[in-house]
Amino acid sequence: MTSQVTPYAIGTALQRLDGRSKVTGTAPYAFERVVDNATYLHPVQATIALGQITAIDTAEAEALDGVITILTHVNAPRLASTEDRELAVLQTDRVSFRGQLIGAVIADTPETARQAAGLVRISYAQWPHEAELSSERSDLYTPEAVNPSFPADTDEGDVDTAMSAAPVTLDTTYTTPLEYNNPMEPHTTVALWNDHELTLYDSTQGAHTVRTTVAPVIGLDPERIHVSAPHVGGGFGSKGIPHAHIVLAALAARTVEGRPVKFALTRQQMFSLAGHRTPTIQRVRLAADTDGRLSALAHDVVEWTSKVKEFAEQTAVPSRNVYAAPNRRTSHRLAALDVPVPSWMRAPGECPGMFGPEVAVDEMALKCGIDPVEFRARNEPDVDPETGKPFSSRHLVECLREGADRFGWHHRDPTPASRTERGWLVGTGVASSIYPTLRAVSTATIRVEAADHYRVDIGATDIGTGTWTALTQIAADALEVPVGHVDLRIGETAQPEASVAGGSTGNATWGTAIVEAARALQDTHGRPPEIGAEASGTTPNNPETERFAMFAHGAQFAEVRVHADTGEIRVPRMLGVFAAGRIINPRTAHSQFIGGMTMGLSMALHEVGVLDTRFGHVVNHDFAEYHIPTNADVGDIDATWIDEDDPYVNPMGAKGIGEIGIVGAAAAIANAAHHATGIRLRELPITPDALLR
Amino acid sequence: MKPFDYQRATDTDTAVATVSRNPNARYLGGGTNLVDHMKLGVSSPELLVDVSRLSSDTVETLPDGGVRVGAAVRNSDLAAEPIIRQRYPVLAHALLAGASGQLRNLATTGGNLLQRTRCVYFQDVTTPCNKREPGTGCSALDGYTRYHAVLGSSEHCVATHPSDMAVALTALDAVVHTQGPSGPRSIPVADLHRLPGDEPDRDTVLEHGELITAVDLPALPMAARSNYRKVRDRASYAFALVSVAAAVDIAGDTIRDVRIAFGGLAHKPWRATLAENALRGAPATEATFRTAADAELAEARPLSDNEFKIPMARNTLTSVLRDLTQQEGS
Ligand SMILES: Cc1cc2nc3c(=O)[nH]c(=O)nc-3n(C[C@H](O)[C@H](O)[C@H](O)COP(=O)(O)OP(=O)(O)OC[C@H]3O[C@@H](n4cnc5c(N)ncnc54)[C@H](O)[C@@H]3O)c2cc1C
Ligand code: SF4
């Protein structure tokens, strides 16, 4: 057991400490940083998907008043390392995907930079490219591991034999499309190079991650790179690792040494430069007895990566831990294509990977004539199916049952297409959620400035999640002082090194470091510690992970209406019930959950990047054409949680909640759409044409 | 984006003369379409002549019972106008189904009519497009065509016209008044937009420099019983997959007269005369509605991504007619 912090501030609905500065517009975001003598960068992007640059004509662009310099592979400073090929900008004449950064105009105003970028003439030798994903491709390969380091394939028991022996079986294929993170704040960087020191005001999920990733690429000692990101307007994974634009800004800053370079990606540019979620093709096989007990579960995934750099989404991984099926098989096959580099997007793996299987389970429940909530309960494992370890805590069935009660599930007539209200077919659906409880390593420092002033420093980030507030609550309880005595500082490399805001690890990792620092302070300096006392703490390894499997769980319920004439689909109601350990702040947690569920609604009904394989780029690359929900699409979305006591995960007893809200939401909606119409939808997004009758 | 000059027009004649003599001059209404195009490089005018404060921004009743809408009337204002809401609900609904509140506050009646297609290739200067650069080819033909035309297209262009307002105006037999280099003229809205043919770069029959000054709605008593339905990929703030503007005059169970236009199906708002003919004098039944829709859609030719538009248009028209004919007072 991990010694637990006694909750006092933890668990209270403290308002966001940064709320006022945000709504009054005074919280500084990267691009708004006031700097003297700024220059502006506008990139030049490749308009072919594969080939070689044969000529560059910058004469017309250079002739424009206000253009300072134009960088291309011909004149750009050499990088110290080109090992990470995504980050190796302007180092060769090779074009590896459409939209790749192949040049940069630096000018006195953003308008001039943009105009000049349009005047740079590039000639290419174009080679035939490959941008089409299909499970029929002959060049699919098995990656060495899937993100971050799971085995690509697992095989337990004998799925084939179980499939042929079982009275009820299912073998179907589901797809999820190319999706984009699209945080509200675009990726922006302000870079200043001065005397072998690089300062970056960056919109990132991890200041230290930027420093440690960029340092070897540009060949600077990490200590000479200073990154500042106190406020970030969302990331959803796309700002988790630095992308090529940061290196381009650094190269530009080095070229105009002494003058800051401001660079904000346009929304369109984000569709080729800021990562995306691979499309997935998921074959799911299930075998069960007539009581609905699964004897086999197989999940075989085909997805893409880019030839530039491999990113293997761990789509089939959740199928290793959710249900008790003695025979299990999972696999991942990749097509390496001439497309931009995929990356993390909210709940990589779990989010797409709980779509196929959770719709399959609904189909199976129907085949067995068993209520889908009950079907899931019957397949609840005693221990983690993958490792055989007990769960540190698991309340999936409790979430399902609590949700069913609150949602009014019990009045439901299971017959599809049995309810119509004023021309709309009505149905409800359910799905499970799961997300691993992980943690990374960070360090925090606490210094007693005065009897009522504890300064807490840690290079953590708040990407809109509530870190400023939640870490203050944790620090207050760890120090046993009121929240008003805590002076938290985050978002800078000047602070002790902290891990990225990703993998739902933030609070667990940073909070544990703060608790360690508070305990060190009390151990060495007593209670209360004297003014001027200082101590540091680092997140230790958690020995309990040897004994326990650790996950957060949830149940998602959705009501769907489909217009009988036009196929238009609406989701008036969603409810999520989660079990995620102790909730640090119910206000910010509720926002995280419903935000995740809203993004799940978006995935279910709206999001699809349309890649035109002839050109190799996403043609609907703006918010008029790449849809996310409007207010009118978002009905009554509510989330609640059950009290879950887990003394094994960390001293706060808290599991990460940033991602689980999106997991399973799309499946619940697809299942509800089936219940409403009798039409089984195995392909996302679900649009009116698929529901036309 | 290229640097450009800006002038605010003070009188119609000067504005028309200024734009007419400069092939690279454009009128500026609310700018919600033109300025986007300038940022994207789709359009690079040298001179913008702002007419958003020039032509009338009022809605007046005409002696013959019709209504005149000034070209500068903002979409939000027009939708809120009591006369429009009572006598031409189809127009108010169409306006409110378009864009977003913020955009409608800026968008003008003239600018809305002349907004250009949302074809993704038209808006992306890195891909060939006959409409943007004649002779370069049509990228949509073998590309992404979910929002493209099924009626009246050509091998040169399969784009749709995106305006909702224009669909309602077409159904209402509205007339556009213009002032051009060769004087004033009146054009029925139904004849304002062109089919693409082999000149897809020309959206409308207007000449360069021809200014829209007003739009007249005829006194059309049956328009009081009218509606606009827009089927789209999200509940708001999305262009139509298919839309229907319709007005009916019903006597007992018989359709005495009817006006129908489709949006989302063609390079122009599509006046459904074949469907109207099938409906006039026919009983108001589900079967009649479907037959009428099928008559209009018989010539439809879908592209790879938009076959659904044909049943969707049929169902939506049926749905609208059912609702209109079953309204109170029928
Ligand atoms: C994200 C987004 C979503 C949208 N969704 C919808 C939608 O769902 N439905 C819909 O119908 N529309 C939609 N729109 C389009 C919107 O309705 C148009 O942009 C708007 O109506 C254009 O009006 P404006 O006054 O701003 O035109 P401007 O952009 O100022 O001008 C458009 C064109 O008209 C010309 N022009 C302007 N006034 C005159 C005049 N008096 N005489 C002659 N020429 C003139 C200009 O030179 C220009 O070529 C959307 C737009 C955006 C950006
Ligand atoms: S459909 Fe028309 S607008 Fe679209 S690419 Fe073809 S020619 Fe251009």
TrEMBL record, chain A:
Gene3D superfamilies reported for this sequence: Aldehyde oxidase/xanthine dehydrogenase, a/b hammerhead (3.90.1170.50), Aldehyde oxidase/xanthine dehydrogenase, molybdopterin binding domain (3.30.365.10)
Keywords: Molybdenum, Oxidoreductase
Entry's EC annotation: 1.17.1.4
Keyword GTP-binding carried by entry: no
Molecular function GO terms recorded: iron ion binding; xanthine dehydrogenase activity
Domain Aldehyde oxidase/xanthine dehydrogenase a/b hammerhead: 24-128
Amino-acid biosynthesis is among the record's keywords: no
Protein name: Xanthine dehydrogenase YagR molybdenum-binding subunit
Organism: Halosaccharopolyspora lacisalsi
Automatic annotation (TrEMBL), chain B:
Domain FAD-binding PCMH-type: 1-222
SMART domains cross-referenced by the UniProt entry: CO_deh_flav_C
Top EC class of this enzyme: oxidoreductase
Any Pfam family hit: CO_deh_flav_C
A single MF term (Gene Ontology): xanthine dehydrogenase activity
Keyword Methyltransferase: no
Entry's EC annotation: 1.17.1.4
Keywords: Oxidoreductase
The keyword ATP-binding appears for this protein: no
Name this polypeptide is given: Xanthine dehydrogenase YagS FAD-binding subunit
Organism: Halosaccharopolyspora lacisalsi
